[in-house]
Amino acid sequence: MKKTAIFITTLFCTLLFFSSCEEDRDELKVSESEPVVLSELTISDIELDPVNVTNPAATFVWTTADYGQQTTINYRMEFSIDQAFTNPVVGGLVSSVNSVTLTVAELNTAVGNAGLSPFAWNIIYARVVTSVGSQQVLPVASNVISFNVYPFFNYTFKDYYLVGDSTQPGWNNNNNNPPLFRDSSNSKLYSYVGYFGAGQFKVLEEKGAWQPQWGTNNGSEIAVNPGGGADPGTFPLNNNPIATAGYYTFTINFQTNTFSFVPYTESTSTVYTSMTVQGSATDSFTMTQSSFDNHIWYANNKSLVPGNLQFKTNTDTVWAGSTSFSGIATLNGGNIPVVVEDFYDIWYNDLTGQYIMIPLNL
C-alpha cells in the first residue's frame, strides 16, 4: 500500500509539474505584431558630406511594435533601390527603442551597398523590420518611405597582402607588404605574378594585423583564421616551402576557396629603369622600383583627385587601363579613371600590366 501511495503521489506531482510547464509555455507565447509605422523624414533630399562623416545624417522614427508579451523587440533598418526590397541591406539594428540616427558614414555605406551610384542624386527606399529574440523570429515589415540622397564613394573592395620569408617583407606584417592584384571584373579573384624566394608565405587582410590570415591546409584549398582560432598552414603546399626561388603566378579565388601556384617565364621580359605616374589626377611623380623584384613598382600615400592617370616608362612608352582602382594596363591603353579624391598606395606590375590603387581613407 505504501508503494501504491508513493506511486500515486509521484504521478500526481508529475502531472502537476507538466501542467505547470504547459501553463508557463502558454504564458511565453508571442503573437505576430501589427506592422509599425515608419514616419516620413522631415527633409526629402540628403546630400552626404564626405568630410564630416561622423555628423548625423538622418533620424528614423517609428511606432512601437506589440508582440503580446514583455520581450525584447528588435528593429532592423533596411534600405533598397527598389520598392519591392528585392535585395535589401541593413543600415542599423536597435532593440526596444523606436528610433535610430545614422551618421553620414553609416547612411553612405548603406545606400552604397544597396547599389546607388556615387556623386548623383537617386531615390532610396527605407523600411523597418521588427522581430523578437536573438534569432529575430516573427519578422514584420513596416510601411516603406523614400527620399533622395547624394552619396559619396563607397569603397566596397577588400585588399590582401603578402607576408612570409619567400616575399619582400619577410615575416613582418607591416613592412610595405605587396598587395595582391584584384581582377577588375571579379572582385573575389586576385593574383600576383612575381619573384618568390625559397620559403613560404601567407596572405593578410590588413597590414599590421596577423588576423584575418589566409593559408592552406591541404595544398589546393584556402583556409583562414579570422581571429581567435588556429592559423592555417603556409602557401604553397601546407608548410612545405618553395624549393627553388624564381618567378611564379599565385592566384587565389575567395569565391571558390581555391588557389594555384605555378612557374612563370620572366626571362624575355623588358626591365625598365624608371616608371612615372602622369595624368590629370595628379602632378607627375616617380614610382619606386622594388629591390626584391625589379618588375614591381610602388608609390605610397599619394594624393589623387578625380581625373585620370597613366604609367610612363623610361623608354617613353605609356601604359594605361580603363577601370578604376584595379585593372590591366596596355600599351597606349588610354587613361585609368580616378573617381574619388583621396590618398592612395599605388602598385604596378610591368610584367603583366596589372595595377592597383588602394585608397587610404575611404
Q: Uncertain regions: pLDDT < 50 for 5+ in a row?
A: 1-27
Number of strands: 27
Helical residues, percent: 10-25%
Secondary-structure class: mainly beta
CATH architecture identity of the largest domain: Sandwich
Radius of gyration: 28 Å
Distance between the termini: 82 Å
SSE run: HEEEEEHEEEEEEEEEEEEEEEEEEEEEE
Globally, the shape reads globular
Number of domains: 3
Q: What fraction of the residues are assigned to beta strands by DSSP?
A: 35-45%
* Name of the level-1 CATH class of the largest domain: Mainly Beta
Average pLDDT, rounded to a whole number, is 90
- Major β-sheet annotation: 6 strands, mixed
Number of helical elements: 2
- CATH domain fold name of the largest domain: Immunoglobulin-like
Overall description:
The chain has 3 domains: 45-150, Immunoglobulin-like; 157-268, Immunoglobulin-like (Sandwich), CATH 2.60.40; 270-362, Immunoglobulin-like (Sandwich), CATH 2.60.40. The chain has 362 residues and is mainly beta. Strands 1, 3, 4, 6, 7 and 8 form a 6-stranded mixed β-sheet that branches. Strands 17, 18, 21, 22, 24 and 25 form a 6-stranded antiparallel β-sheet that branches. The chain has a 5-stranded antiparallel β-sheet with strand order 19-20-26-27-23, with no helix packed on it. Helix content is 10%, strand content 38%. The N and C termini lie far apart (82 Å). It contains 2 helices and 27 strands. The model is unreliable at 1-27 (pLDDT under 50). The longest helix is centred in the N-terminal third of the chain and has 26 residues, at 2-27.
